[in-house]
Amino acid sequence: MKSNLIILLLGVLFGCVSCAANDIKNKTTVGPKIIYPYFASAERQLVISNGYLLIEIGMSIKQVNNVLGDPDEVNPTYDVKKRPSKIGYSHVYLLSRERLNGSVNEKNEHLVRVMFNLDDKVVRVDKW
Fold it and tell me: Considering the chain, what is the average pLDDT of its residues?
């Protein structure tokens, strides 16, 4: 009886981890809702600003999350040259953003973007 309960709990735990990974890949917002204007805490800014330098091409999502923590947003990436087809997704780590919508100038955002291919491997890292 006790071993059945443990097996059931492990199944639920691993099922939740799997669902969470799929949620991160398929949603455009992760974590708590962001209130604008947004400024990351000083500690988070240090983690992101220093950590992104450690991210290398080919790293897995888990490796990136171990360095930078959970992303603030996850967005799909498309190849517009070969018909609009999904080629991966990007994790966005916000340092600051004045507003959700608007032009680049209106948003006045500072962030790190880590782009992944469909095999969940890093293909590019940008900071602006």
Answer: 82
